[in-house]
Amino acid sequence: MDLALLSAAAGEHGGTPAWAMLAYLISGVLFILALRGLSSPGTSRAGNRYGMIGMTIAMVTTLVTHVPMIPGDAFNSYVGPDFMTMGEIVAAIAIGGGIGWVIAKRIAMTDMPQLVAAFHSLVGLAAVLVGWAAYLNPEAFGIVGADGAIHAVSRVELGLGIAIGAITFSGSVIAFLKLAGKMSGAPILLPARHVINLGTLAGIIALTAWFTQDQSLWVIATITVLSFLIGFLLIIPIGGADMPVVVSMLNSYSGWAAAAMGFTLSNTAMIITGALVGSSGAILSYIMCKAMNRGFLSVIAGGFGAEAAAGGGAAKEQRPWKRGSAEDAAYMLGEAEKVIIIPGYGMAVSQAQHALREMGDLLKARGVEVKYAIHPVAGRMPGHMNVLLAEANVPYDEVFELEDINSEFATADVAFIIGANDVVNPAAKTDKSSPIYGMPVFDVDKAKQVFFIKRSMGGVGYAGVDNDVFYMDQTLMLLADAKKMVEDINKGLAH
Amino acid sequence: MDFISILSIFVMACFVGYYVVWSVTPALHTPLMAVTNAISSVIVVGALIASAAAGSASSKWLGLLAVVLASVNIFGGFAVTARMLAMYKKKEKK
């Protein structure tokens, strides 16, 4: 470490100038405002701008306080600014920024869940790399003691940061592959997986403790490898529709990884951000679990849907149901006074949101009251349906949450279910043996007429349970691709 | 800063996060995930420090790689959030 720089920094915390610490604090506060803005769509855009300003402040402050220097000889502490390295840093930002920008502009809104998962994996990997960089060059991070060893506290922070980052990375890669359909969404169950997982976790914790005593390379390398492994093992047994919980959980982890690195660097911007993102992901996971009436541990343990599907297949009885046509649906929708539309993942799969909005417009032109009802776990990530409807120009004040609209089904003429299944299953209210028992569901059985768009009668929902709504007197099954069916209904409504 | 000061900031920030996130409307949960993703890339601060420091070539290259990854997230995360938020519109008054 440079003696001249050290003395210059004396009196200031950890070598960071006071103005820089203030700047980091300001960027932390701006990040809080960014999330605060999301309390309503009207203030959200300003919030996003606060976030961008905060990030700019944090990056510029770091660049200005850490100008790369060419190290000198015994007489001069440095030869001069290292323009080569500066160029490399600018190039790195430009390359990454360019890639990110292009992806953000091109991505289809239906692909948002896998995009978020992919982005999480990058934060995780970045945390691992920063952790390793700090381990290899601890002087640069100001975490070495007088004896040349890394501070014990810093070692724990590094170990945790690398471990959480690695779990975030490999877990998010699996979540991405599952969400993008590049890997089967079905749970993959290894024998004795709980024992393997707990053993690996215990190993990581023990090694992190050992790391405080022995800062050898093998310790941190083993922590890294085991953490990559556990991230992978934790996510493969979790099925597709539990992905909202998984994506939220990984969101939370990416925050904790940033916070751990913030501790290492005594950086307030990183610590505040880490805490914000960590709590955000944790709260979203909690909301999702509650909306499915399942414990967080049961979701994380995985395997949901696998057993139920296997058991349900044999005892399936044939019950009478009615098939409707697009013309029937168009006629009855046109005569209705109030229609409530319940979208689900199937709408996203068939990209039916634009056709659906057109249907809403045609109905409104006839004086029909149209509302959209969104279940918290509809789709593959929190708020997935809301984004798709917003993309299709559905005004957000026509879109309602479960608890706000559920009492209205009694006064609705038509409940229009498109690509949803488990979230309207009355078994959740009545059948104690059902795997979805206790999950809050839409009371579609109270509506006078139910239209249920579904690809075929064969498939069951994610939970693998039959749905009594199919067989109700007032239900007409519209068996077709969701987009095709809605377009046909629109033709019927147009004349 | 000493460990206790940092820990205090962290604990307070967790509480702030708790109350701020509960006030986020469920309709904006997807943009919330996208923007938290972008801001968690503030880890770029660590990556920049590693990239700028002399003394270890391997540390510098790891840092530069982390700068690339974090920048993908920063630019991509904020841009995609802005794109989503621009779509949320109120009913037009006729």
Automatic annotation (TrEMBL), chain A:
Cellular location(s): Cell inner membrane
Top-rank lineage group of the source organism: Bacteria
EC annotation from Swiss-Prot or TrEMBL: 7.1.1.1
Keyword DNA repair appears in the UniProt entry: no
Enzyme class: translocase
Catalysis performed (reactions): NAD(+) + NADPH + H(+)(in) = NADH + NADP(+) + H(+)(out)
Cellular component annotations (GO), alphabetically ordered: plasma membrane
Membrane topology: Multi-pass membrane protein
Keyword set, alphabetical order: Cell inner membrane, Cell membrane, Membrane, NAD, NADP, Translocase, Transmembrane, Transmembrane helix
Domain NADP transhydrogenase beta-like: 22-491
Family: Belongs to the PNT beta subunit family.
Purpose: The transhydrogenation between NADH and NADP is coupled to respiration and ATP hydrolysis and functions as a proton pump across the membrane.
Record-given protein name: NAD(P) transhydrogenase subunit beta
Source taxonomy: Bacteria, Pseudomonadati, Pseudomonadota, Alphaproteobacteria, Sphingomonadales
Automatic annotation (TrEMBL), chain B:
Topology in membrane: Multi-pass membrane protein
Transmembrane segments: 6-25, 32-55, 61-86
One GO biological process term: NADPH regeneration
PANTHER family the UniProt entry points to: NAD(P) TRANSHYDROGENASE, PROTON-TRANSLOCATING NAD(P)(+) TRANSHYDROGENASE
Compartment annotation: Cell inner membrane
Catalytic reactions of this protein: NAD(+) + NADPH + H(+)(in) = NADH + NADP(+) + H(+)(out)
UniProt-listed InterPro entries: NADP_transhyd_a_C
Principal subcellular localisation of the protein: membrane
GO MF annotation list: NADP binding; proton-translocating NAD(P)+ transhydrogenase activity
EC number(s) per entry: 7.1.1.1
Keywords: Cell inner membrane, Cell membrane, Membrane, NAD, NADP, Translocase, Transmembrane, Transmembrane helix
Summary of the function given for this chain in its UniProt record: The transhydrogenation between NADH and NADP is coupled to respiration and ATP hydrolysis and functions as a proton pump across the membrane.
GO cellular component, one term: plasma membrane
Domain NAD(P) transhydrogenase alpha subunit C-terminal, first and last residues per copy: 7-90
Protein name: proton-translocating NAD(P)(+) transhydrogenase
Entry annotated with the keyword DNA-binding: no
